[in-house]
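just leaving the lab so this will be short. what follows is a protein written twice so to speak, once as letters and once as structure tokens for the fold. can you read through it and tell me how you think this chain folds. thanks a lot i owe you, the record is right below.

___
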Amino acid sequence: MTDKPATSSQVAEMQNPGQEEQGKTLRRVVVSSFLGNFIEWFDYASYSYFATVIALVFMPSGDPTVALLETFAVFALSFLMRPVGAVFWGNMGDKKGRKWALTASILLMSGATFLIGCLPTYAMIGLLAPVLLLLLRMVQSFSASGEYAGAATFLAEYAPTNKRGLYCSVVPASTATGLLCGSMFATVMYSVFGHDSAFVTDWGWRIPFLLAGPLGLITHYMREHLSDSPVYAKMQHDLESKKGNTVRAPFRTLIKKHPRVLLISFGACMLNAVGFYAVLTYLPNYLIDTVQYDSASASLITTICLVVYIAFIFFSGHISDKFGRKKMLVTACIGFVVLTIPAFYLLGTKDFFTILAVELVMCFLLTINDGTLSSYLTETFPTDVRYSGFALSFNLANALFGGSASFISIGLIEATGNAIAPAWYMVAISAIALIAMLLSHEHTGKDLTEID
């Protein structure tokens, strides 16, 4: 999968291709980037919505609550592989190329997801079943950690400078689409066959995982037939012309030369990590368990919010091209600081339209952050460490704060007895992110080759 270094004529051709060919290439980059993240988050949603079935299939029989907790423990443990995968894929993406990392990671990620759908049950092989489930989840998480950062970097380096935010917003939109499709798939299956039907427990839950196989092969094929980005090819050519070598140690360079930028980026990603999981996955459970709201209505509100969220993402990406990434991200931080606590109080009204309005406002604030963050991170790091810087800051924040968002929120309510406690946690994270953004620099509209 390693590509030969580009010659000066090839670099010039990639930087100035024909308009029609450029459009076709950009479309292929967009579709392959969308599909890669879609697979990851369709799997995430499927695992969450079929958690009770997976607990029944893979965990020892007994207390169903304990089995469910064990199922989510497997999910949480897999997040520990995110920073490890970020270092590996970021380093390889900067050293061997974006294309190399993305074509390798999609095969590993989709392959592990497909194999989860093929696993024998606890009744067949005993304790080996949950052990294999954990191992495959860890492989999937390891490989997925390079997907979001790699897809965004690849898109940013191909996209027109004045539309970079819009094109990069495809990546967060694909995550929300994966969540939406996973939710709808589970809802339809439960509605048609029932939660405890033999079809669902035997084969139905396996279908979304098995779909990752063909989708992964299609995405791999598309990426295999793309050239590496013009920005990356130019950097490689310049390095070879001056020194006769390529990037040798991207991760070491990132830590030694760009620690301040890395720390600021991590702070910016903290809000995205907590906000995404809190707004799109924790709030439905908060409404049902804490507010005692009707579960069907809570699910309907979540579905509506996901659809609107996808549209908001593209709007935010487009607006960020006009007003700048820093202004957008600062706005999102201030919005969460000011509105989160009133929003949680309003959720307690149990009024459908009030709750819907509140969640839509929260979704809009999240998309101001989420629709801008991917383009901001690609513009923050220079080309030789762009993949590494993006992957490490994004995945470390998600491993520490994203995967634990629901757990911490529930723990705060239990410890304080205050149903609004998660809102204060969200405000604190938003304040930290705001400080990070105020210390950052604006690079909107710059050529990526000029960022140092």
Remarks:
- The domain at 8-450 is CATH 1.20.1250.20 (Growth Hormone; Chain: A;).
- Residues 180 and 249 are 39 Å apart (CA to CA).
- The chain is about 80% helix and 0% strand.
- The chain has one domain: 8-450.
